[in-house]
Amino acid sequence: MTRTMTVRPGESIQRALDEAGPGARISLAEGVHRQHVWIRHPGVTLTGAGAGRTVLAPGEGGPVGVPRLHDAGDDVVSGVTVHGEGVADVRVEKLSVRGFSGAGIYAHTVSGVTVHEVTAEDNAVWGVYLRESSGCAVTGCRASGSQYGGVALSFCPRSGALLDGNETFANAFGIFVDNSSGARVVRNSCHGNAIGVLLLNQVYEGEPEGGVRDCLVAGNDLYGNDLAAGVEPDGLGAAGPPISGVGLALIGTHRVSVVDNHIHDNHPSGESVMGAGFVMGSSKEWGGDDALDNHVLWNRITGNSPLDHQLGTDLARQVFAGNVADKGEPPGLTAAEGWGPR
Asked: Which Pfam family is one of this chain's hits (predicted)?
C-alpha cells in the first residue's frame, strides 16, 4: 500500500520521508518550504501543488549526512538529493527549487528517477543534475540561473535518459550531455545560455569511462544563446574554455542523430572556442575521440553569427541530408552534400 502524507510549510519534509519509507507519496502543500531533503528510499513520489506555488528554498537545519554534490565542498547544499543503495523509481514533480548553493535536484547512482514540471531557479551550480544513473527522465521543467548546466546528464554510460519538453535559459549550458550515452534530447527550448545543447566526450582524471554514443537530438528550438561562459575565474562556466553564441555542439560523439532542430539567431557576446550556431568537432586533445558516424538530417540552421555551421570533422564519416544553412565551414557545401541555402 502507498502511504500518503501531506507536509505544510514549517513542517519537516525529511521526517515525513523517513517515517513513510519506501513507496511513499509526500505531498507538499502550497507555500515556501525552507529546507533541503534527501530521498533515500525507493518508489518515493515528492509532489507539490505546482511550480511557483510550492517552493523549496534554503533554510536552517536539514538531514544529517546528505551525500555532497560531486566535486563540491561540504558546505554546498542541494535542494533535493536522490541517492542511496537500491534507490530507484523516484518521482519529483510540480514544485520550484530555488536558490541553493549546489544543485536544485541532484540524483547520483540511482535508476528510474523522473523530474517532471519542476522549476529550478538560481541554484548556484546545476539546475537538474543526474550523475552515474540510468533510466531517468527530465520532462516539462524550467531551469535557469546556474553556473554550469540547467539540465545535465553526467557519466551515465547506458543512460536510457529522456530530456523532453524542457526550457533552459541563463545557464552556461542549457542542456549538457557529459560523457553519457543512449540519451534522447527532444522538443526542448534552450535560449539565453552560452550554449544551448552540448554533447561532450572528454576524459577526466579520476572519473569513470566517458563517451557519448547513440543519442538522439530532435525537434529542439535552440536560439538566442548569447551569454559568455568560461571567461571569469568564478563566473559562468568557470571550469571550461570560453564559449558563447552556440546553439548545438557535438564534440567527439559517435552515432548521434541530430534531426529536425531549429538552430537560429545565436550570437556570441565574448570570446569562444566554437564559432557557429552548430558545431561538430574532435575531443582527441582532451582524451576523447573524433566525431564519427553521426547523422545530421533536416535541420534549419540560420541567422547565426559568425557562421551557421562549423564542421571540424571528417565529413566522409558522417551522414548529412536536407539541412538548411546560409554560411559555414567548410564553405561551399551543396544540397547534394546535405547542405543547402535558406
From this structure: Beta_helix
Domain span at 279: 147-340
CB atoms < 10 A from the CB of 138, how many? 31
Contact between residue 172 and residue 229 where contact means Cβ atoms under 8 Å apart: yes
DSSP H helices in 54-125: none
Q: Does residue 87 lie in a domain region?
A: no
CB 295 within 8 A of CB 261: no
Asked if residues 125 and 147 have their Cβ atoms less than 8 Å apart, the reply is yes
Q: For residue 203, is pLDDT > 90?
A: no
Per the structure block, which three cell numbers stand in for 55?
517552493
Q: What count of Cα atoms within 13 Å lies in the side-chain half-sphere of residue 103?
A: 28
**Under 8 Å CB-to-CB from 225, ≥6 apart: which residues?**
174, 190, 191, 192, 193, 194, 195, 196, 245, 246, 247, 266
- The torsion angle over the Cα atoms of residues 119, 122, 124 and 125, rounded to 10 degrees, is 40
Q: Which three cell numbers stand for residue 247?
A: 546553439
Q: For 64, phi and psi rounded to 5 degrees?
A: -90, 140
3-class state of residue 335 by DSSP: helix
* pLDDT tens profile 77-94: 999 999 998 999 999 999
Angle, CA of 79, 83 and 84, to the nearest 5°: 150
Q: What's the confidence (pLDDT) of residue 208?
A: 81
Distance CA 171, CA 98 (A): 14
**Three-class secondary structure of residue 94 per DSSP:** strand
Alpha helices (H) along the chain: 13-20
Q: What does the alpha-carbon distance between residue 308 and residue 290 come to, in Å, rounded to a whole number? A: 21
75: left (phi over 0), alpha (psi -120 to 50) or beta: alpha
The answer to whether position 86 is within a domain reads no
Range in 84-98, 206-220, 259-273 with the lowest mean pLDDT: 206-220
Number of domains in the chain: 1
Residue entry with cell 557519466: 155
- 199: in domain: yes
Which of 1-10, 31-40, 128-137, 264-273 has the weakest average pLDDT?
1-10
Relative to beta strand 216-218, strand 45-47 is unpaired
Q: What is the pLDDT of residue 342?
A: 76
**Does residue 100 contact residue 78 with C-beta atoms inside 8 Å?**
yes
